[in-house]
Design brief:
Helix content of chain A: over 70%
Shape of chain B: globular
Structural class of chain B: alpha/beta
CATH topology of the domain at 3-86 and 151-227 in chain B: Rossmann fold
Largest sheet of chain A: none
CATH architecture of chain A: Orthogonal Bundle
Distance between the termini of chain B: 26 Å
Oligomer: heterodimer
Number of strands of chain B: 9
Number of helices of chain B: 7
Number of strands of chain A: 0
CATH class of chain A: Mainly Alpha
Strand order of the largest sheet of chain B: 5-6-7-3-8-9
Order of helices and strands of chain B: EEEHEEHHHEHEHEEH
Largest sheet of chain B: 6 strands, mixed
Distance between the termini of chain A: 58 Å
Order of helices and strands of chain A: HHHHHHHHHHH
CATH superfamily of chain A: ABC transporter involved in vitamin B12 uptake, BtuC
Chain lengths: 273, 248
């Protein structure tokens, strides 16, 4: 009986986590994939590990530390590339490695209890708390509201920033706010998929959606749907096979991407002949 | 003909680098002005001053408030600014012309959608409402960007070297379309592509640090060479032409 309740709780938590992860990653992912910001997002992800390390060392919530580091990294890249004229990809590369280095040093220096490094690097649903799920739920709500209210501004700015800038003096504000929201999304999803794997949670679903639609709003909706299908399937597979959740989710998503691509190509050939 | 905007002894540039010096310039309703001159001479700077993106360091630009304000200037930038591989549909690109009204939140009303479709039909792109941008030809793309520039019903249309991405099959159509639009709005077109456009253009502004205005619509190769414009007219047979007076 006790085992059943545990199972039930585990599955509800997992599915809720999968749902919120898919919503946040689908919205944020569509933005970063279409704007070609995947490498920047990788930088944000890895830099945030510095915050996790400092969080452990200082005894504060590592997710909070990661959020601060993630946002600072996003703004730091902008600062280094625009103001200091350092090439953007170099700036990303520097902050990427710097964050990882800071994280490792501070985790090493943390006395006594050694945190489960693997769960932060590769994700572990077992360490996901109810608070993490609630935080992801709130983030989903914020992103849904933000993208609904500013949908057209986000679309126009993403497509042609220079044209948008011609008519709007708020473009920089939109850029910074959106990038900060992306950083938060990444950090909250690190609990699900880990620093190393979280980026694919954001990038694979939009790329599956892009195979069959080029309408921006549909890319978002399909990303969320595809993300949920992949995440939930991966989660259940991981549960029954007793293998790591984060890796299984990403593996499932990539397989899904390959299958959809193959079906699409086969369909195209069929129409041709 | 009413005056839309006027610049008196205006100077403008970037930081220390003043590009335009003591410009006197007027744009009237129904003007179709070709802006020509060498690269770096200040053609684009002139457009940016009109769009309010650059504040003049000296002098000012006066809009005729009854006819024109900063929310009624359409703009067709050089094509390089938009990512044609971005997943966006024709109708959404046209609708992005709503940014001209400078609202913080851009919302689409049913009327906006109807108007966008009318523009698409009018530009000869019927049936392509939801076509992704990367499936269009160069000429179609150019018409979509023109559609975006006129979506907000501008009174003044600024075109930055539209010849750059015109593909010759559509060239004539495009300039005919401009001629048609010119009945409803003044047009200021930056170009170094004189041979083709000159027949529709009513007057010229030669910009090279300073601005010389030619009320006539024809201009010759000799004139341009003397002015230092990097332009060459190549043609077969007899081309009607008029020689303008030299700059005083």
């Amino acid at each position: 009986m006790e085992g059943t309740i545990f199972q039930y709780d585990f599955i509800v938590k997992g599915l809720l986590g999968a749902l919120f992860a898919s919503i946040t990653a689908g919205l944020a992912g569509t933005y970063i994939v279409t704007r070609k910001m995947v490498f920047l997002s990788g930088g944000i992800t890895h830099a945030s590990f510095g915050g996790i390390g400092i969080g452990y060392f200082a005894g504060i919530n590592p997710v909070f530390g990661a959020a601060v580091f993630g946002i600072l990294a996003a703004l730091g890249v902008e600062y280094l590339s625009v103001r200091q004229k350092i090439r953007e990809d170099s700036a990303i590369g520097i902050l990427w490695a710097f964050g990882m280095a800071v994280g490792i040093i501070f985790i090493y220096l943390t006395p006594g209890y050694t945190p489960n490094l693997m769960s932060y690097l590769f994700g572990s649903i077992l360490t996901v708390t109810n608070a993490d799920i609630i935080a992801l739920g709130i983030m989903s709500l914020i992103l849904i509201l933000y993208f609904s209210i500013f949908y057209r501004t986000i679309l126009y700015m993403s497509f042609d920033e220079s044209f948008a800038r011609t008519y709007s003096s708020y473009i920089d504000v939109f850029k910074y706010v959106t990038t900060s929201l992306i950083a938060l999304t990444i950090v909250l999803n690190i609990r699900m998929a880990g620093v190393v794997l979280v980026l694919s949670l954001l990038t694979i679903p939009p790329n599956i959606a892009l195979i069959f639609t080029r309408v921006y709003s549909r890319i978002i909706l399909w990303s969320v749907a595809v993300g949920f299908a992949g995440t939930a399937t991966g989660y259940i597979l991981a549960y029954f096979a007793g293998i790591p959740v984060g890796a299984t989710i990403i593996f499932t998503l990539v397989i899904l991407w390959v299958i959809v691509k193959l079906i699409y190509l086969a369909g195209k050939n069929l129409i041709k002949n | 003909m009413a005056n839309l905007l006027e610049m008196n002894l205006l100077s403008a540039g970037y930081d220390e680098n003043i590009i335009l010096h003591d410009i006197n310039f007027k744009v009237n309703e129904n003007d179709f002005i070709g802006v020509i001159g060498p690269n770096g001479g200040g053609k684009t700077t002139l457009l940016k001053v009109i769009l309010g993106l650059i504040k003049p360091v000296k002098g000012r630009i006066i809009f005729n408030d009854k006819l024109l304000n900063e929310n009624s200037i359409g703009y067709l930038p050089q094509i390089s600014t938009g990512d044609v591989n971005f997943p966006v549909t024709v109708i959404d690109v046209i609708l992005s012309g709503m940014m001209i009204h400078k609202k913080i939140i851009s919302r689409m009303s049913p009327d906006d959608k109807k108007r966008a479709k009318e523009i698409i039909d009018d530009l000869g792109l019927s049936g392509n409402y939801n076509a992704p941008l990367n499936e269009l030809s160069g000429g179609q793309l150019q018409r979509v960007f023109l559609g975006r520039a006129i979506f907000g019903n501008p009174k003044l249309l600024l075109l930055d070297e539209p010849g750059n991405f015109v593909d010759s099959t559509f060239e004539n159509d495009f300039y005919e379309k401009l001629k048609d639009l010119n009945k409803r709005m003044a047009i200021l077109m930056v170009s170094h592509d004189l041979g083709i456009i000159s027949s529709h253009i009513k007057s010229y502004a030669c910009v090279n640090k300073t601005l010389h205005y030619h009320p006539s619509s024809e201009i010759t190769n000799e004139q341009l060479l003397a002015y230092g414009c990097p332009i060459q007219l190549i043609t077969h047979g007899v081309v009607p032409h008029t020689v303008l007076k030299t700059h005083s």
